[in-house]
Amino acid sequence: MSTLRLTGDLRREQILDAARRCFARYGYAGTTTKSVAAAASISEGLLFKHFPTKAALYAEILVEACEADPEMHRLLELEPSTSTLVILIRDMVAHFLRAPELPDQEEAERIRLMVSSHLGDGEFARLLFEKIGNLVEPVFTASLESAIASGDARRVEGEPLNLFWLAHQVAHMIALTKLPAVPSLPYPETEIFQMQVCQFVLRGIGLTDRAIATYLNAEPSQKMAAPRIAEGV
């Protein structure tokens, strides 16, 4: 084991770099904290000082990949508005609806991992939801308030971020039905269906039909790239 002393931030990045290589090579199930520690040339005990579990380590890598995604930067830098709110929902729906068909199957495996987490102790799902919520909440809530102020949406009672998670779970559940070789529901693979899902979600979070008609087709869909974990990245 290396005796080189590093600052906390540098040590953390060393662990994350090693973990990215391990997850890319062995997948989530095949990677252990022991193998990550070995790849980082540190003890497993030192790894646990930075990341208490494998789930915490993987969630951090996914969120960092998401934060580094140019499409996510584009989205988070948009001015809060009705248009931004519609883009956020539209891109999320597009992301989930195409996830099971992506050739590398990475996103499909992450969806399966989320399901397994919900059926188990829920740790991975809680960690990832918390981190994604912190990332998305400012632009979502500010854009929702902007839409309400401009008359493009009615206020729905309750915590605003819950509306984002309800939208997320609609899209996520549709993706689940597409994972089996024979989909469990015969949803069509069409842009019309994608628009139907977006309209359903946007009405649910309070947008008026006029606003949906105005903004949903305002520009070509800018699909958000799925975060990727590749060796060497």
Describe the structure.
The protein is mainly alpha-helical and 233 residues long. 67% of the residues lie in helices and 0% in strands. It contains eleven helices and no strands. The longest helix has 27 residues, at 123-149.
Q: How much helix, percentage-wise, in residues?
A: 55-70%
SS summary, helix count: 11
Order of helices and strands: HHHHHHHHHHH
- Give the amount of beta strand, in percent: under 5%
- Give the total of beta strands: 0
- What's the Cα radius of gyration? 20 Å
End-to-end C-alpha gap: 24 Å
Please summarize the sheet with the most strands: none
Uncertain residue segments: 220-233
Structural class: mainly alpha
Question: What spatial form do the alpha-carbon principal axes imply?
Answer: globular
Q: How would you state the average pLDDT, rounded?
A: 87
List key phrases describing it.
globular, 0% strand, mainly alpha, 233 residues
Q: Concise description?
A:
This protein is mainly α and 233 residues long. It is built from 11 helices and no strands.
List the helices and strands and how they pair.
Elements: H1 8-30, H2 33-39, H3 44-50, H4 54-68, H5 70-76, H6 82-98, H7 106-119, H8 123-149, H9 160-177, H10 191-204, H11 209-215
Helix pairs in contact: 1-2, 1-4, 2-3, 4-8, 6-8, 6-9, 6-10, 8-9, 9-10
